[in-house]
Amino acid sequence: MSYLELKGVEKYYGDFHAIKGINLNIQKGEFIVFVGPSGCGKSTLLRMIAGLEEINGGDLILDGNNITDTLPSKRDLAMVFQSYALYPHMTVEENMSFALRIAKEDPAVIKEKVEQAAAKLNLTDYLKRTPKELSGGQRQRVAIGRAIVRAPKVFLFDEPLSNLDAALRGQTRVEIAHLHRELNATSIYVTHDQVEAMTLADRVVVMQAGVIEQCGTPMELYDRPANKFVAQFIGMPKMNLMPASLIPGQSDAAVEVGVRPEHFTLVAAGEGQLKGRVEMVEALGNETLIHVELEGSKEMVIVRQYEQTSVRPDEQVGINYDASQLHCFDAQGQAIR
Ligand SMILES: Nc1ncnc2c1ncn2[C@@H]1O[C@H](COP(=O)(O)OP(=O)(O)OP(=O)(O)O)[C@@H](O)[C@H]1O
Ligand SMILES: [Mg+2]
Which of 187, 248, 272, 308 has the most CB atoms within 10 Å of its CB? Predict the structure, then answer.
């Protein structure tokens, strides 16, 4: 049996069907990431699990108990928000111990739990400070610490890093991954950043318009996307999608064919399976992205190579691809295997 089960979970806001019968089984200790475009229902689903939004249909089972209608405070879950939501007038120590003090936990035990969490989060030197005396990254660690001391059954994170600058986001992401390995706590993490999703998750849940498009390990989603939406959502730059007529020899049902930029190889003009004209060259140092307009069709594709290149805009080039790396999609956008 799974640790946390969502069975046909539904949410309506008036006439608007925000969450459309979601089924998901989460195992104990798993790190699950919900990812998808803005407005697809990630936060709504997380808040329904937390008990902050009413569930209008289906069931939520945690550790064998049906908690669909259980009060948030009785669910044994802890949520970490983007906005930190710290008490400004309390010190780090008081913020972290708040829930335990309310629960009338023994002061000696509280002290020990706070000290342990602070040590894990590198906050030991900041326990007497108030939130305004901390950096954004330190504040977010306090918010995480406040969740850790409660030892909840499941940690819920809603875009916890999106208020941080890029460098700090990268650093805090590594800290969260490290923390997860150490605590082995079941976690659900919402983000619209696919790098966070791919690097943190045991399994990624890709959502669109209130439904799950695909759920799998990061590499399953990257190597075997179930449909066009997932194929183009995961991967940066996006998978190239072309009419199947441009890539002959595919399955008859294929309407569109996708190729990841790194599965195209640039070759000399006159060679290769495709030909085109270079539109733009993005030299990023570690990789080069070459934008090519295909001859005849005017389709733009991106070729990624890890070597630097001497090709320039307006040059004619050839492109090769490996037939085993093609993704074929039918008229409904579903992958053909
Ligand atoms: N209280 C509400 N009343 C009505 N509609 C709502 C309410 N809360 C959310 N919605 C709608 O439900 C949909 C899902 O919202 P949700 O906040 O879950 O999106 P999200 O995936 O978290 O997006 P983002 O990445 O922008 O945070 C949106 O279309 C939103 O407008
Ligand atoms: Mg959201």
Answer: 187
